[in-house]
Amino acid sequence: MILTLPFSGTILGGLAVGEMLLIQGTVPSNADRFQVDLMCGSSAKPRADVAFHFNPRVKKGCVVCNSLLKESWGREEIHKLMPFRPGAAFELIILVQSDIYKVAVNGAHLVEYKHRLELQRVDTLMIQGKVQINAIAVVATDQDCPTRQSAVSLSESKMKNSSRSDSSLSSNGDLSVPFKAEIIKGLSPGRSITVKGRTLPHAHSLCLNLRVGGSSSIALHLNPRLKTKDFVRNSFLSACWGPEETESKHFPFAPDQYFEMIVLCEASQFRVAVNGTHQFDYKHRVQDQVPDPGGSGTNDEGTVV
């Protein structure tokens, strides 16, 4: 998925210390500059405050960092570094700490920026300029809180619903795969689960199963197959697999890329979105039941981290 720029998205729940903002994209061959802004609101007039302005100026070979308060820019911090190359892909990570933002590009530390505005005010991500963005995610680095739902709500998403309730999982904090956890209070209509991860470079498929509590039945089997680019879904009922469904708008997974998958349970169907884009609906095949305690997500191939 390539995002339309300028992009503005709400960071649901804001940013917390210990979380990472992950952005994957490509620098066009004609790029001169682009910017990533962590903002306090999205107002255009008056212009919203910008807690952290990250501005790679490709042609000048430098990165400029700053903050905007009451429509006035502060002192620029200019770093004579340029890890972004025209025509090349990149992975940008902004790690939130109590006193600073730490920025890394392609796995290498780049800059640190001290907070000038309160972290609690940050609730919006803005990206603009000459850059191609393929994926955005907010990931908690604390495994004691594996279900923190602070995902960037992409403006293209058809599943944004501020009234929906996110489900919690009961696990020992170990997120290695295969992974299994109980869905506390079940996945009833109006509730959702969010899975964030990164496919490994050699990934060929991954699997998420939502089981019916107390049985071997699988209400929803999600099986993206990277080699064939098929997003397979099915149900396992009465010890038998049903007919597979494979139709989708596009295949959103690729090797060695971060992803965010949301499964929303509705009265008659599951709705599935990946990286903020609605993929498909899946009609319930389990009558009068939805996944409840005992629901699990597993990856038989071990190709997700």
Automatic annotation (TrEMBL):
Biased composition range(s): Low complexity: 153-172
Keywords: Lectin, Repeat, Signal
Keyword hit for Nucleus: no
Keyword Lipoprotein: no
Signal peptide: 1-16
Region called Disordered, residue ranges: 150-172, 284-305
The name this protein goes by in its record: Galectin
